[in-house]
Sequence to fold (323 residues):
Amino acid sequence: MKKALVCGAGGFIAGHLVKKLKSEGYWVRGVDIKEHEFSPSQADEFQLLDLRKAENCLSALTLPEGAFDEVYQLAADMGGMGFIHSAECEIMRNSALINIHMTHYAWKLGVPRYFFSSSVCVYRDMLPGEPEMTEAEAIPANPDNEYGWEKLYAERIAQAYERNRGMKVRIARFQNCYGPEGTWTGGREKAPAALCRKVAEIEDGGAIEVWGDGTAIRSYTYVDDMIDGIFMLMHSDLQGAVNIGSPQYVSVDELAETIAEVSGKNFTFKHVEGPVGVQSRNFSNVRIYSIGWKSRYDLKDGISLTYPWVEQQVKQDRLTEID
Ligand code: NAD
Fold:
């Protein structure tokens, strides 16, 4: 039985990844600084550890015998644009410490295969309609936020350990990922969950606030697609960074309209000042397509699975407040 360590298993994507690895027959240890917020972890073992500390990385990676076959490093101090723009020091310090120690001790303890979750935030801002950017075009680098710079640095740490220490490293650059069991409130939520929450909260005929002018272009990847991509990439021969994302690019207003359609509610948008990030994104998926990955969910499919879950959280929250 293969053994996997999943870092950040108390979070959204890694929580889903644990389920996938269990369904593939792995023995899984999850590790995070907090428990999973929405469902008990399905990991065989779950350790509560602060991975900014070297000794905790060592402890998470230690088995009674032998080494983990695979390590998936998804732990990060992370959130949507609101968080990224206000927590630059936390991101630069906390996520960098996690990545420095995890990569080093994974190699030291003889882990043969290491996955790192990077982000398309490593790329520069783009103009709408610019040709797709390939992975190599992230350099020369000019990310618009510190989160992107930290990810680039962490990619390079992992690649240095592959080149100089022989640990196989697989790096995915995720597009925006959304789905059930993702952060939906509290300041760290990303646009799809935040908009689902706002729609779930308003009465028919009301208005929801949308940050910016609604024209920023993004693609949104449903979490099951992302998990398939992670698993396929980890077991492929693809070295270097690999973009994973839905090829469906939409404006923020189109995202909000899709949520409106799924919810069946009538409301208007009010564009307000807020952190938006880059104007446009458009990335090549040629590398991930080369190993047979394809996104299975279009935006409406994914929102149809996500909105009811967020709506349920909003209802439960209101009941708790009344209690
Ligand atoms: P998430 O915040 O739900 O998960 C990250 C987890 O890391 C959290 O559970 C958090 O508690 C944990 N963590 C933070 N600091 C820690 C510490 N010191 N010790 C141990 N655990 C710690 O975020 P997510 O959306 O599931 O993202 C997972 C990974 O994917 C992250 O590395 C993120 O940067 C990357 N990513 C996500 C997206 C997205 O759209 N969600 C896009 C690009 C990249």
In short: The mean pLDDT is 96.
